[in-house]
Amino acid sequence: MINRDSKTLMWITAKDKNSGQLLESQVKLGKIDRIAINVNYKHFYVNDKKHVDLVAFDDEGNIFSGLEGFRFDWSI
């Protein structure tokens, strides 16, 4: 059962221009409850250009499959 207060169901449809084949997928959109930051080094400093991986979770512990398009404002 889906909690309608925190999640929205949406259908995404994509069409292949060459074959005309349609692909449909139902996805859940949810609010980020918490994030985890994964790094491969012990120290990093302000203004360092190192790669960090973000993993986002909803309130049920499900992992977001992608965070592209999200903008995060960081403060230390």
Short précis:
This protein has 76 residues and is mostly beta strands.
Describe the structure.
The protein has 76 residues and is mainly β. It has no helices and four strands. The protein has a two-stranded antiparallel ribbon. The radius of gyration is 17 Å and the shape is elongated. The termini are far apart.
Please report the number of helical segments.
0
What characterizes the major β-sheet?
Answer: 2 strands, antiparallel
State mean pLDDT (0 to 100 scale).
79
Share of helical residues: under 10%
User: Mind telling me the C-alpha Rg?
Assistant: 17 Å
How far apart are the termini?
39 Å
Number-wise, the strands total 4
Beta percentage is: 35-45%
Shape: elongated
Low-confidence stretches at least 5 residues in length (pLDDT < 50)? none
Strand order of the largest sheet: 1-2
Order of helices and strands: EEEE
The structure class reads: mainly beta
Write the layout of secondary structure elements.
Elements: E1 7-15, E2 22-30, E3 34-38, E4 53-57
Antiparallel strand pairs: 1-2, 3-4
Question: What key attributes describe this structure?
Answer:
76 residues; mainly beta; two-stranded antiparallel sheet
